[in-house]
Recover the amino acids of this structure.
């Protein structure tokens, strides 16, 4: 058995290849879409989603994934599509959801007329704490101290202000 160990070490040393073998060989996977293919994808994304058969004007990751599959016959995960788009300078935009019944004129009127009146009626508070705990004052020195209920000198109890 002792004769077997040096032979294993010699085999490992020959297979090792030196410090040069420890260098990185680059990323494990290659980008699935080449730069030329991504230019074609950008052209496809410049078209409306309606041109690709969807009923509305939103590009989603799932839709981009479908376009890549149809056009280039390559499969991506949603996260892979997201990373691909971010890598090429795209960003996520969430559309503002607005009610169909929204009345912009009524909103502007409310902001100009009703809101200033409501804001003026709000109670303006002075300096103080937003804490629900009562501030306690020392009977002898008058200083504000939080509980425990004794002063620095511990001779006089504190009472609520």
């Amino acid at each position: 058995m002792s004769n077997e160990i040096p032979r294993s070490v010699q085999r490992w040393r020959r297979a090792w290849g030196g410090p040069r073998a420890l260098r990185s060989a680059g990323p494990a996977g290659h980008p699935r879409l080449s730069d030329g293919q991504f230019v074609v994808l950008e052209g496809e994304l410049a078209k409306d989603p309606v041109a690709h058969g969807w009923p509305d004007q939103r590009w989603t990751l799932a839709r981009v994934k479908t376009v890549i599959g149809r056009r280039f016959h390559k499969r991506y995960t949603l996260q892979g599509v997201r990373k691909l788009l971010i890598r090429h300078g795209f960003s996520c935009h969430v559309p503002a959801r607005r009610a169909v019944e929204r009345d912009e004129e009524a909103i502007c009127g409310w902001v100009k007329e009703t809101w200033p009146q409501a804001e003026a009626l709000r109670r303006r508070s002075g300096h103080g704490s937003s804490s629900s705990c009562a501030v306690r004052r020392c009977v002898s020195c008058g200083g504000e101290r939080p509980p425990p209920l004794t002063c620095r000198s511990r001779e006089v109890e504190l009472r609520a202000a």
